[in-house]
Specification:
5 helices, about 130 residues, single chain, mainly alpha, about 60% helix
């Protein structure tokens, strides 16, 4: 077996393990916090200015998620979840992002304690069976 060779751009770093998982959860939480306040009849509007200076005001989760320039790989997953929800159903993008964020928030203490991700996934699957 040959050793693995990684080529990284200058300024990037390669991290693994518990700290990386916690970092991923924190990045997703930042996206969720930005979207959470748009939910409901009293949801607040967000002003988003793109790199060309075009301003957009919206309280639609799908629109906001499309306009956000997310670079973190784990946080991009939330953007993809919102896009998939919008494409399949056409509604509920904010709710699905907040739900995913809450799942991650509930997992974080277990990750910090060192519980293996497979155990956490097994618990979620068991909870899903009990709920249905």
């Amino acid at each position: 077996m040959q050793p693995q060779i990684l080529l990284l751009k200058e300024g990037t770093e390669n991290t693994q393990g518990k700290q990386q998982v916690i970092s991923n959860i924190n990045a997703c939480s930042a996206i969720v916090d930005a979207i959470r306040t748009t939910l409901g009849p009293r949801g607040m509007d967000k002003l988003i200015v793109d790199n060309r200076g075009k301003a957009t005001i919206s309280n639609d989760g799908a629109t906001i998620m499309k306009l956000l320039d997310v670079v973190h790989p784990a946080a991009k997953t939330l953007v993809e979840i919102a896009k998939s929800q919008d494409a399949e159903v056409g509604d509920g993008t904010t709710s699905v992002v907040i739900l995913a964020g809450e799942f991650l928030k509930q997992c974080k203490p277990f990750v910090e304690e060192g519980v293996h991700p497979r155990v956490i996934i097994k618990a979620f699957r068991k909870a899903t069976k009990l709920a249905l």
